[in-house]
Amino acid sequence: SEVTEVRDGVPFIAQRVLDKPNCDKLAKEMSWYDNYLQAGGVDRSANPSPGNKAGGLSTIVEKSMGSIAKSGAAPVSQVVSAGEIPSRHGLIFNATPASDFVCGTMQLASGMGVQVFMTGRGTPYNLEAAPVIKVCSRTDLKDFWKGLIDINAGSIATGEKTVQEVGTEIFNMIIDTASGKKPVAEDLGLFNDICIFNPAPIT
After folding, report:
1. How many other CB atoms are found less than 10 A from the CB of residue 130?
2. What is the CB-side half-sphere exposure of residue 55 using CA atoms within 13 A?
3. pLDDT class for 177, splitting at 50, 70, 90?
């Protein structure tokens, strides 16, 4: 998801899209968002957020590369608009705004049942309608946000675990959470309001 956060690296997504109709849909969604921001008088370079910048991200181009890298290398089977229900299985690109709250709401509208949320700086972001599995990239963050973080991927950087081991841990938690066998770590009862995409410019 998050158009702004992939916009500057969209050719790397386009080359993974399985067919021309979906590639055309990807281009159309990017163009729509460009026009939306232009009409609102907003430059997409307003993203990264202050928190992103404090964490070390310098530009939206750098953030785009990281966002795309997190999607892995699987082919993109379908491109859907914000709130559109996918008709295929596999890796789906859901063209939503970049705001966590609006993006999550639009993913819910597109049928999301479980969300895996990667955080480098920590967040209490959570949805009541679908469990949010929070994965952190730093061990000190896991220690600080004990009740909010489910999986510590920082163990890869410290050499305690491999990418494959953490990937398996995330996969198993997705299955267990979706099956109702394991609750997410979020135990404070905090949930974000449902925030619908609106005409206000959201970078």
Report:
1. 17
2. 15
3. very high
